[in-house]
Give the backbone structure.
Amino acid sequence: MEAIDKAILYFFNRDLANPVLDTFFVTVAESKIFLALMLIVAAAIVWRGSAKVRIALVVAAVCVALLDPLTHYLLKPFFGRPRPCHTLGDIRLLVGCGGKFGFPSNHAVNIFAAMTALSFFVRKYIWLFATIAALIGISRIYLGRHYPADVLAGAIVGVVLAAIIIYLLSVIVLKLKSNRFFRMLDNHFKGAFTWRRN
């Protein structure tokens, strides 16, 4: 498995390397300008979007806020797997190495958790959310920050724990639905767990 992990890493990090992909993946994964644009878009959606979309964004933010520190402070030290830049001397590093441990990838956990939350509430754009998550995941490998297994594990953790968080939030909302505001939230959460395109 380790040999396969390294082979896939080298394929994305070295074999596919070219200036266009360098610029693209650095921009997608590391650029503060790109992050600022995403925050502006999210703020505009919260301001002008439907109640369902606003709820989706808030739930996505909650998932990231809970899972990011869990991954960084608990999972990474527990597994203790070094990043490839700490163990391999021939990795192309476009944005620096990062911390000591890389399993699972924080970026993968966060983006897959956020995209899972959005997909629960806005099903018709699930293809877009999946594409964004996949690109961010691939960027971690291309940039030499993570092994493929780090990203795969991060994706699984993000999806599974985001689904659990959404379920727990739905239970809390259900308990409080005597309040008008929470009754409205309950309707949207019920829709999120009804697997249909909406």
